Amino acid sequence: MPRGRKIPKRVVSPDPKYNSLLVSRFINMIMKDGKKTLAQKIVYSALENLKEKIKKEDALKAFDDVMNAIRPSVEVRSRRVGGANYQVPMPVTSDRQDALAFRWIIAAARARKGRDMVDRLTSEMTDALEGVGGAFKKKEDTHRMAEANKAFAHFARRR
Q: Domain segments of the chain: what residues?
């Protein structure tokens, strides 16, 4: 049973260049201290570099491919049953899939050494498409953990 009232989703307007809600949400996650134009420059430059590196005709399609490579389909959530905590594998909602993928890409890009954020973000996205890199590893770890705890799947709430 959820506690309190349901919080309404914030409406985010699509980004000016690609008219995409996904890119707009990604820009908002990259943004620090309210510097949106800087975040837009970083994301747009990284998407252009990505398009050139993987030789796609459309940067938005390339970004979708990266997101599909990193979105998790299952995760483990802690559930208390009879005095013991179990890591129960649960499917991930589409909004949370995007949020986790954004968080992992950005964290992995920020953790890379040297160079500017555009280069780090571009290389993290190309690595994700190749099946390597920090963000892809995080997704694999999440899936592996869900697989290992499959025995506790019957504790997941049925609705």
A: 21-77+88-155
